[in-house]
Design a protein that fits this description.
The chain is an alpha+beta fold. The chain has two domains: 38 residues; 172 residues, no CATH class. The protein is 29% helix and 32% strand. Helix 4 packs across helix 5. The protein starts with a helix and ends with a strand.
């Protein structure tokens, strides 16, 4: 069994089973003891106004007499992750929407497969993204070092289909055109932050940035 799960053939089978499970979900979901109810996530579009508001909040932390923390909405925080996205993440096209679910930032956008750097590297997953699809990324935020933060992707959905865990790293590598720095996790998208930001927390629908204390 372990050898089978390591094979590409079995990944195809897992994808097929996942598709079948999603299509028939209404028939079996109610039969799962203790199954959590489906919760509608309230996404907010990333607009220029929200981008500017987030930037102002971040810049306030750099002021000598400024606050020691700043609380951002999901959309405002997503502007940090997506800085210079047209060059770094060209596969994201159209309107980006964001939400906070638990301790994760969730980004949703359309994915243009023509902008992926190499479809062959996706293996069986490539069959799911042959045309423009809605893609949702959910992940954690961390400060890796002064001036650099990480959005580490924990969950990916193409439309409503969950991408198998072994395929997530391959998709992230195809999405992010930036050269990966030493020690960057396979699932992480690295982005720049001002060096005076020392910590980040995601909770209660917000993203809180904390100023470094000398």
């Amino acid at each position: 069994m372990s050898g089978c799960l390591r094979s590409v053939g079995c990944l195809v089978v897992l994808l097929a089973l996942a598709v079948g499970a999603w299509v028939t979900r209404d028939r079996w979901r109610h039969a799962i003891p203790g199954a959590a109810p489906v919760v509608d996530v309230a996404f907010t579009p990333l607009t220029e106004a929200r981008r500017a508001a987030g930037r102002a909040q971040v810049e306030s932390l750099g002021q000598r007499s400024g606050p020691v923390f700043a609380t951002l909405t999901a959309a405002e925080a997503s502007a940090l992750v997506l800085t210079d996205a047209r060059r770094r993440l060209p596969a994201f096209v159209g309107q980006v929407e964001a939400a906070v679910v638990g301790d994760r930032l969730v980004l949703r956008s359309a994915l243009d497969p023509a902008e992926l750097s190499g479809m062959d590297a996706l293996g069986p997953l490539a069959s799911l993204v042959q045309s423009r699809q809605r893609v949702t990324l959910a992940g954690t935020l961390d400060i890796a070092e002064p001036g650099r933060a990480l959005f580490t992707v924990q969950d990916v959905r193409v439309n409503e289909l969950a991408v198998p865990s072994p395929a997530i790293a391959a998709l992230v590598r195809q999405l992010d055109r930036r050269a990966r720095g030493a020690g960057t996790p396979d699932r992480a998208i690295s982005f720049e932050v001002p060096p005076y930001i020392g910590d980040v927390r995601v909770s209660k629908g917000r993203v809180t940035l904390y100023k470094s204390v000398p």
